[in-house]
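Milestone M4 deliverable, item 7.
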Amino acid sequence: MPKSMELEDVTAPACCAPLSGPVLGEEEAVELAGVFKALSDPVRLRLLNMIASAESGEVCVCDLTGPFDLTGPTISHHLKVLRQAGLIDGERRGTWVYYRVVPERLTRLSGLFALPALASA
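Output delivered:
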């Protein structure tokens, strides 16, 4: 992850309510289910990993098609699903689109799985 991308402390109480915390409202559950649905595809998971691990913090779509045995339009569809889930964002520069992760969304997801602190005996 690039040095310029700072993630907030997900263990801080004000950050994110973990699944073990307060009961999720219906709207939040629907939103999160959409995010997990977007991540349930191996190609999309790999694309997100490639984008998140880019040294520069972003990746040109031209660099995302080579590692897959898929057509350009299929890769574009998968990137669109990740964008709609709010996990990545893109910026057009001339002919190409450059993608980067949305750190707040990844932090939110990681905070969901934080276990409650156990009290000392």
